[in-house]
Amino acid sequence: MNTSEFSASWDQENQTSSVIFILLGFSEYPHLQVPLFFVFLAIYTVTVLGNLGMIAIIRVNTKLRNTPMYFFLSHLSFVDFCYSTVVTPKLLENLILEDRTISFSGCMMQFFLACTFVVTETYMLAVMAYDRFVAVCNPLLYAVAMSPKLCSFLVSASYSWGIICSLTLTYFLLRLSFQGVNIINNFVCEHAAIVAISCSDPYISQEIIVVTATFNEISSLFIILTSYIFIFLTVMKMPSPRGRSKAFSTCASHLTAITIFHGTILFLYCVPNTKSSWLMVKVASVFYMIFIPMLNPLIYSLRNRDVKETVRKVISKSL
Predict the structure, then answer these.
(1) Which of 66, 98, 112, 293 has the highest count of CB atoms within 10 angstroms of its CB?
(2) 23: part of which helix (H) or strand (E)?
(3) Are 109 and 188 in contact (CB under 8 A)?
(4) According to the model, what pLDDT value does residue 5 have?
(5) What's the rounded Cα separation, in Å, for the pair 36 and 65?
(6) Which helix (H) or strand (E) holds 103?
């Protein structure tokens, strides 16, 4: 490294060490701070208990543990728990404390982790759609087609791609310049809110996230839609109404989770980039970062006979 490069690197390090971000959150509604704190605390408590409980239920039941669908579901629960934990504790802190600051490194780390888990969940839902496709369309070959090796590979690929996307997006955020105290008009270090306060041209960073997000949405939805088209065609060919009902019921929980997750993300794409739209962005962010991680275990547990049966057995043994 030559002298000029070292100097530039030193200046950048000094600059970022003095940068402070303030998460505005919902501070423009001071009378709602305490009620929102208890609402989000209750949601986070249900999220933690629901997702960790789902993982525990799958682990204690050998039948569930060795079934590909529940293997994927346990990882979905882990991802939901993780990205809710990345975001919610800081939100709760900011709702009761006047000091809403977050360091530059803390903000970048929060963005990296949240992005990693959101992208991972996007592809985990796609993997689960493929699993349902194999189960409904090729039931006799299901155990062979969805081998433990393939299941592990699909899960690892989802996590790996989430990390790659997050590293790429975080790298381009780190190349932006920030000075002094900056107000982020959100409760989380979200990409659009961060680039909005940058002192440098964010064009490249904005283009990278548009390309990445578009690719992730199109590719994951293509897998999901293709899988469910074949599932629908296969189910409609079944002669028995009872068989059709049973096949559809096995996909109902997953379809519900997909609709809520992707519906919220696609809604965010449609929000115009104006000052008045920031409240809508915050509300949508709350929904997919805080509500959805709570809803997923409830959706799968309430509509799943195997999960409910395992819960009953655990409770009866404990009593």
Answers:
(1) 293
(2) strand 20-23
(3) no
(4) 44
(5) 37
(6) strand 101-103
Q: Where does residue 99 rank: exposed (0-12), middle (13-18), buried (19+ CB within 10 A)?
A: exposed
The alpha carbon torsion through 193, 20, 107, 89 (nearest 10 deg) reads -100
Please tell me the predicted confidence (pLDDT) of residue 21: 93
Nearest to 131 by CA among 118, 147, 116: 147
Residue type, 148: P
Q: Could you tell me which residues are beta bridge partners of residue 22?
A: 101, 183
Question: How many structural domains compose the chain?
Answer: 1
Residue 160 within a domain:
yes
pTM for the predicted model, two decimal places? 0.89
Q: How far apart are CA 261 and CA 296, in angstroms?
A: 10
DSSP structure class, residue 272: -
- Alpha carbons 174 and 275: distance in angstroms, whole number: 24
Length of the chain measured in residues = 319
List the CATH number of the domain containing 192.
1.20.1070.10
Sign of dihedral through CA atoms 262, 77, 225, 114?
positive
Within a domain: residue 148?
A: yes
Helix (H) or strand (E) holding 15: helix 3-17
What is the pLDDT, as a whole number, of residue 23?
93
CA separation for the pair 193, 260 (Å, rounded): 23
pLDDT of residue 293: 92
> What is the rounded distance in angstroms from the CA atom of residue 255 to the CA atom of residue 243?
18
pLDDT at 289: 87
Give the 3-state secondary structure of residue 146. Answer: coil
Which residues of the chain fall below pLDDT 50?
A: 3-14
